[in-house]
């Protein structure tokens, strides 16, 4: 048995190395246990030539080892040299398999039978050795790997990177860095935002996508791995791509079995939960401390600061404050009372439901990206129709939501611990109501970026946000007259299902009484008539289906399937029936909807012989529209080519209404029969353009319009993220002479968008105007409505909500 040391440090990554350096500097006996033959295995395994970032920039570095942004090789060389200079004691190839004993006399045993005795143990083992595995058919094939050491090793391969964090992005960039390698690189992101990644990495990825070096596929996940190809679930259905190699970088989790065997408890049963820690990093087993990625802090600068701090704490320095203390003190300075930073963090964590499972360390990082404010009773938190995508949490007091625009006294309370503003977070809509403080309150405002990061990294937080948003969606859809208690039983049965495009949630002829609420996306309803599927209707987000068999019994009378990749809330039929029995008004509304749908079914059956051609044409036209983005639209421009004379008045009017820049390309787009879908914004229910907008410049107006405000920085992310090509980057042209000057004096370029030649000739000398994102805003704020529709001399151009246009009721009217 070796001699006893004051501190044993397990793992020589940034956190462990920094801890060992501090111990050496203080003259404390120590040993740094590393399972490999080199220091900092995590950084060592970074891909060759990787640029390592030193974020967050506002956080000072507190360590005896230097660290600044730079190449992986240079950082490792610096750390190796400084570890030797400081006299750090390292035991290589010492993989720890067990830690026993108690504070003052721990015994650490390695897989090779070595033993070390220490008064205190610091665990800095990270999580990279326990990656999240690909779980789909074919997920065990040999061409799947979870680590990329040298991107230069791979030549002329079709490589798919799975993962939306920094590791996945950096791997994709490395594989696509040299065009001479000939790699075809695709990166998959299950969501629309790269919430976990650093903004600098996201910017580089988007630039690579724009240059055609990387194919970026958002809202996409692997469905099946095959030799040489990969089947994907995309927002528009399944797609198969060639794939010679998969680099899966989907995060990692703590080696929980080993950590728990050391007597350490976790914050929850979630696989990605972290150990319970005190403010000084001590676990539930006194004398054992956890720092670094295992504590929930993956950033290198954080890890190194923790390594320094924990040794100071073990050495008796209880007056030392974390490096981020001044930043957090400033955030809490305006709040009432005399609580310390630690006390404020604990109060917020304990009282706000979505923060309950965060450790004190995670709370510190979370608050660096959030704001906390005090409100007096009656203070406005935000106004109805105001832009905003942040989330608010009530830590003390309450909030009042003014649900009646004409009567501010009609309010719904939001109690302490709950959240509000989740609609803006999820869909980007303007604030749906004015919210005031109901009493003296303390509220946390969480930026959209911070909220998405929280939900992506803390499963319990995501569940809490999802549960609250589902509850409110059910109250909105099935109300009025329902309370939280009324839907409690429904909530117990509620299950959120992800549905790929074309996948049915209800199939005609089957048994079933469950109800489905469309949470995200849209559905189409079809019925088999004369062995042909007839399109009955389109259902946008916020609709529900399934009530016909619940109320009337029998088999399902139609098939309901996803128009695009969607989410539905599945509700137990028995629980829904019990609620209807308790609430007759809800049952009556459901019966009214059911009767309307029965009328549509009866109409189709009764008229199928007399206008079968019209039914076929309607169904084909409806499917064409859904396939071309109408499945997620809230407002779409259509042109009847039987009426269109090609005058381009619509484009000219659009330009003249918007600083000389048209938001419409009439000739572009696809046509079926006489119906044309030009290139113009669909104002999607969940806009893709909002993903990764650095200044949060994209909002939804009170009439549903998606618009870009003056804070646009011209980064082009929205243009790259839009799947319909309706956003362009351009600078505002010089002002044109008036229309009368053009008519009578021949001055100016005339109606519509001026030519590039005219713009160049009349540009202000020496001034290059910055480009910004240009897209349709539905002529928000302009009297008379959309200029494209008003300017059409034949009535060929119409703007419609798809649920109004795609309906058999319209077909019924047209066929008498």
TrEMBL record:
Keyword Nucleotidyltransferase belongs to the record: no
Molecular function per GO: 4 iron, 4 sulfur cluster binding; metal ion binding
Q: Where is the 4Fe-4S ferredoxin-type domain?
A: 635-667, 704-732, 770-803
InterPro entries given in the database record: 4Fe4S_Fe-S-bd (IPR017896), 4Fe4S_Fe_S_CS (IPR017900), cNMP-bd_CS (IPR018488), cNMP-bd_dom (IPR000595), cNMP-bd_dom_sf (IPR018490), FAD/NAD-bd_sf (IPR036188), RmlC-like_jellyroll (IPR014710), RnfB_subfamily (IPR050294)
What sequence ranges are listed for the domain Cyclic nucleotide-binding?
354-472, 478-597
Q: Which of UniProt's keywords are assigned here?
A: 4Fe-4S, Electron transport, Iron, Iron-sulfur, Metal-binding, Transport
Family matches, as Gene3D superfamilies: 3.30.70.20, FAD/NAD(P)-binding domain (3.50.50.60), Jelly Rolls (2.60.120.10)
Q: Which PANTHER family match?
A: DIMETHYLSULFOXIDE REDUCTASE CHAIN B, OXIDOREDUCTASE
Query: What is the name of this protein?
Result: Thioredoxin reductase/Fe-S-cluster-containing hydrogenase component 2/CRP-like cAMP-binding protein
Question: What taxonomic lineage is listed for the species of origin?
Answer: Bacteria, Pseudomonadati, Pseudomonadota, Alphaproteobacteria, Sphingomonadales
């Amino acid at each position: 048995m070796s001699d006893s040391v004051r501190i044993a440090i397990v793992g020589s990554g940034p956190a462990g190395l920094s801890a060992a350096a501090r111990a050496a500097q203080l003259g404390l006996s120590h040993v740094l246990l590393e399972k490999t033959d080199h220091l900092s295995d995590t950084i060592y395994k970074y891909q060759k030539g990787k640029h390592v970032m030193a974020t967050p920039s506002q956080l000072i570095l507190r360590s005896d080892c230097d660290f600044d942004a730079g190449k992986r090789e240079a950082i490792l060389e610096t750390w190796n040299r400084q570890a030797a200079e400081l006299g750090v004691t390292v035991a290589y190839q010492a993989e720890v398999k067990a830690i026993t004993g108690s504070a003052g006399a721990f015994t650490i045993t390695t897989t090779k039978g070595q033993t070390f005795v220490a008064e205190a143990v610091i665990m800095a083992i990270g999580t990279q050795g326990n990656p999240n595995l690909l779980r789909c058919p074919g997920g065990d094939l040999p061409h799947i790997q979870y680590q990329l050491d040298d991107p230069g090793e791979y030549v002329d391969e079709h490589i798919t990177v799975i993962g939306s964090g920094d590791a996945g992005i950096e791997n994709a960039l490395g594989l696509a860095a040299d065009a001479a390698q000939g790699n075809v690189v695709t990166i998959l992101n299950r969501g629309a935002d790269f919430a976990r990644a650093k903004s600098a990495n996201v910017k580089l990825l988007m630039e690579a996508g724009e240059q055609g070096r990387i194919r970026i596929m958002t809202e996409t996940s692997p469905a099946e791995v095959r030799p040489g190809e990969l089947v994907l679930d995309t927002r528009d259905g399944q797609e198969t791509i060639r794939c010679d190699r998969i680099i899966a970088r989907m995060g990692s989790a703590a080696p929980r079995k080993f950590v728990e065997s050391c007597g350490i408890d976790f914050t929850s049963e979630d696989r990605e939960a972290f150990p319970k820690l005190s403010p000084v990093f001590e676990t539930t087993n006194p004398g054992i401390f956890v720092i670094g990625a295992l504590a929930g802090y993956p950033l290198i600068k954080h890890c190194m600061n923790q390594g320094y701090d924990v040794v100071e704490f073990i050495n008796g320095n209880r007056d030392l404050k974390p490096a981020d203390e001044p930043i957090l003190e400033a955030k809490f300075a305006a709040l009432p009372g005399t609580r310390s930073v630690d006390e404020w963090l604990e109060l917020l964590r304990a009282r706000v439901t979505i923060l309950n499972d965060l450790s004190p360390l995670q709370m510190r990082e979370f608050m660096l990206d959030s704001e906390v404010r005090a409100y007096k009773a009656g203070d406005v938190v935000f106004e109805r129709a105001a832009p905003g995508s942040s989330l608010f949490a009530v830590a003390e007091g309450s909030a009042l939501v003014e649900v009646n625009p004409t009567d501010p006294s009609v309010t719904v309370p939001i109690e302490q611990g709950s959240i509000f503003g989740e609609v803006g977070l999820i869909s980007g809509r303007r604030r749906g109501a004015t919210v005031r403080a109901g009493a003296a309150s303390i509220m946390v405002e969480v930026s959209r970026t911070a909220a998405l990061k929280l939900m992506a990294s803390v499963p319990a937080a995501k569940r809490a946000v999802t549960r609250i948003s589902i509850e409110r969606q059910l109250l909105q859809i099935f109300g009025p007259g329902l309370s939280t208690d009324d839907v409690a039983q429904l909530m117990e049965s509620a299950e959120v299902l992800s549905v790929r495009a074309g996948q049915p949630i209800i199939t005609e002829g089957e048994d079933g009484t469950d109800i489905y609420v469309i949470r995200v996306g849209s559905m189409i309803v079809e019925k088999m008539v004369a062995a042909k599927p007839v399109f009955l209707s389109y259902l946008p987000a916020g609709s529900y289906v399934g009530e016909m068999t619940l109320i009337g019994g029998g088999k399902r009378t139609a098939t309901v399937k996803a128009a695009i990749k969607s989410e539905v809330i599945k509700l137990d039929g028995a629980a829904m029936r019990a609620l209807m029995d308790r609430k007759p008004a809800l049952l009556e509304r459901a019966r009214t909807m059911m009767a309307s749908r029965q009328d549509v079914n009866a109409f189709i059956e009764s008229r199928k012989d007399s206008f079968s051609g019209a039914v076929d044409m309607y169904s084909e036209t409806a499917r064409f529209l859904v396939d071309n983005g109408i499945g997620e639209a809230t407002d779409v421009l259509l042109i009847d080519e039987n009426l269109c004379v090609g005058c381009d008045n619509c484009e000219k009017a659009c330009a003249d209404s918007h600083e000389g820049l048209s938001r419409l390309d009439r000739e572009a787009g696809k046509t079926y029969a006489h119906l044309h879908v030009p290139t113009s914004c669909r104002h999607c229910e969940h806009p893709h353009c909002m993903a990764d907008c650095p200044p949060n410049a994209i909002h939804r107006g009170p009439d549903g319009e998606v618009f870009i405000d003056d804070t646009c920085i011209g980064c082009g992310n929205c243009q790259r993220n839009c799947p319909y090509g309706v956003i362009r980057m351009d600078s505002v042209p010089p002002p044109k002479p008036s229309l009368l000057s053009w008519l009578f004096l021949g001055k100016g370029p005339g109606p519509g968008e001026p030519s590039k030649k005219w713009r160049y000739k009349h540009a202000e000398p020496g001034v290059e105007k910055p480009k910004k994102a240009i897209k349709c805003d539905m002529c928000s704020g302009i009297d008379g409505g959309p200029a494209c529709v008003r300017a059409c001399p034949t009535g060929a151009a119409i703007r419609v909500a798809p649920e109004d246009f795609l309906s058999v009721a319209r077909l019924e009217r047209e066929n008498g």
